[in-house]
Fold:
Amino acid sequence: MEFSLIERIRERTAQGREDVRIGIGDDAAVLILPTGQEQVVAIDTMVEGVHFPPGTSSADIGWKALAVNLSDLAAMGASPAWALLALTMPHADVDFVDGFAEGFAELARPYRLALVGGDTTRGALTVSVAVHGFAPPGKTLTRAAARVGDAILVTGTLGDAAAGLYCLQHAVEASSHRDYLVGRLNRPAPRVAAGMALRDIAHACIDVSDGLLADLGHICIASGVGAEIEAGLLPHSSAMLSLFGDTTARDFALSGGDDYELCFTVPAAHVAEAMADLARMGCGATRIGRVVEGQGVQVRDAQGQWLDTSRRGWEHFSR
Amino acid sequence: MEFSLIERIRERTAQGREDVRIGIGDDAAVLILPTGQEQVVAIDTMVEGVHFPPGTSSADIGWKALAVNLSDLAAMGASPAWALLALTMPHADVDFVDGFAEGFAELARPYRLALVGGDTTRGALTVSVAVHGFAPPGKTLTRAAARVGDAILVTGTLGDAAAGLYCLQHAVEASSHRDYLVGRLNRPAPRVAAGMALRDIAHACIDVSDGLLADLGHICIASGVGAEIEAGLLPHSSAMLSLFGDTTARDFALSGGDDYELCFTVPAAHVAEAMADLARMGCGATRIGRVVEGQGVQVRDAQGQWLDTSRRGWEHFSR
Structure:
């Protein structure tokens, strides 16, 4: 049964890549390595009820399990190549597996990402994906490279996924705005092209998975700096503003997780260039603050008052 | 909390490897690739109650989670380098994490294997490990390379882990034999050096994780051949024979999972050479049968009678 499940997934996610000498079906995969590149690898797990609400469609789970990992590669500026899948589920549910594979493949296809290995086991619904990507030596973006004086930018809009979760949990009336926000929760679009474009211009970079305050806080700790954010500059979607208004939008943007936008720092002199580079690939970016001496993330409102930011983004095991 | 748990594991498993440019602590790890090698990757999951009995010590779980993956690399003839860990547990249990890391590190150390990335999440106890190893181009062992006329061999002894599980489940009286068998269940020793030694001499290879009949069956399917096994030649440990006797030992050897020995085929003319190569690295091997035309695995007893082998090794989701 194990064999046939992973075989089903293999068939439904097949990608012709010449660097896969042996894919799913043996004890391990055998991969031909590129020359002149460093390998970038990440692993992330999604658990039902923790990382996605019960009732999430299998296709959305398959998409998101890959998306959160591609987002890690994006934050490093790496281009995706291969993935491994560990899928644990209560029983051998073929319909679930087919839906999962379909969602996974839909996101994998444009990246020509190949699923090269997998394991299916019985247990509580838990999905781990490991991804492998590449970047030129020394060119990866890290959390530790922010410098005092850098501008802080984010791609896209913030807080949409948290607002989408709110819509699901509070049975918000159906509308195109609601659908947009729930779609941002269930089908996040990893900023892979943006991350690669930022390799030569950004200093530090992280993906916003746990909320802006928490993730920008990781940059501050790793870089030994502080950050000041202007709340009035935070980018909100029109769906967010229509359904929730300014103040709630701000809270979602600061503390909501699951957006998978990139938060990055660039020298102030290169902000325009970075925004133009991203715009060319259809990715908007917004300057929201600056890197300062000190530590921690401070947020100023439109009147110049410092906000109480003790309400932080969620972390696993703490909510 | 997530951060500090994975930090604890990082500290306790630290391995100095110059090819790890960025390890645990950023969005992804950055790894310097060797030249002139292919990469071999595998992922395997262990779930409490399915792959290890409740009550298994955290250190044993840490050891075994890595061991089953190293065994996959061994079956391909690859040398281990890096690992990723996805650890899901019901709550942030620092003692569990410390024990897990200790067992993991104990096995990782002699291989200089570095844990380069990880994710800790809340949920039912589930451990996925992905491993990365290397082998010279075209030299990996596969399931698909068995040829009619090959001899079939296995390393070590078979059935010990299944016997160890029986001891735990039936409260078999404490003894050195019992401890040996339980140790084989909880601390399997992956045959990494044996796998590498077999690269130039074996045809097909697989690790015995689901039982000899099931795993040799995988070789038969992948290679388009059949196999004949002499039950009288199956290697048993003295602990097994002392506690269980010949007939039960045979059943455990044929159908018991979790041994993580290697089952491989070699041209008949090279059997002595293969056994000598393995003996030099302290690994015994036993010739147990031969590859034949046809399909499936047949087992003959000491009197030349074919056994009914419909009782197969277990597979996930089927027991």
